[in-house]
Design goal:
Layout: H1 2-25, E1 34-37, H2 39-44, H3 47-82, H4 90-143, E2 148-151, H5 167-177
Parallel strand pairs: 1-2
């Protein structure tokens, strides 16, 4: 009888524990409320995003100017090479050809370095802002009783009713949570 009592008590404990776990996971019933958001558009429409995009554009323009200067120098040397008189020694021609090749390689490397540098800056900015955006999305979803918010930058949704798009509301809330000095004050995010 003792063995049987122990088994019954153990079964009762398992049933009670299972009921408690179910109760914990179902403490807030799902509302079935869904939304979609365009993360890139949110970031482009935030004050911080606009500021960072401006900085990236300035960096890109400065680097483009650097590329243009070196490309102009290369073209000048190539033109000089084309205009060499027929009496120029083979040694002088060879030296100029090597100089042109070296400059072409340096120009290609500079272009690759610039692309990598701009990409790295972009990744840093996007990583920093993505973390903030996720926190804003979590707060927005909880404040507006959303069960799920889908990202429209990832493929998989064939159609979405435009009324589910909360992109601009999230951008406004982002501006409120992460203001940029000198930016116009953000208005309250409307409730859907």
């Amino acid at each position: 009888m003792t063995k049987r009592s122990t088994i019954i008590v153990a079964l009762c404990l398992l049933v009670c524990a299972g009921a408690w776990i179910v109760g914990q996971t179902q403490s807030k019933p799902a509302s079935g409320k869904l939304a979609v958001v365009h993360p890139e558009i949110v970031l482009q429409n935030t004050d911080e995003g606009k500021t960072e995009i401006g900085k990236l554009q300035q960096l890109s323009q400065a680097k483009q100017q650097q590329l243009n200067t070196q490309a102009a120098e290369l073209r000048k040397i190539e033109e000089q090479y084309q205009q060499l008189p027929g009496t120029t020694t083979l040694q002088a021609r060879g030296q100029m050809e090597r100089d042109i090749q070296d400059r072409q390689v340096k120009l290609r490397r500079l272009q690759e370095d610039i692309q990598a540098e701009i990409g790295q800056h972009q990744d840093i900015v996007m990583g920093r802002m993505a973390e903030k955006l996720q926190n804003v999305l979590n707060e927005y979803a909880q404040a507006n009783n959303f069960d799920m918010i889908f990202r429209l930058d990832q493929q998989g949704l064939a159609y979405v009713n435009p009324t589910l798009d909360v992109t601009m509301d999230v951008a406004k809330l982002y501006n409120q949570k992460h203001p940029v000095a000198g930016a116009a004050p953000a208005t309250a995010a409307p409730k859907p």
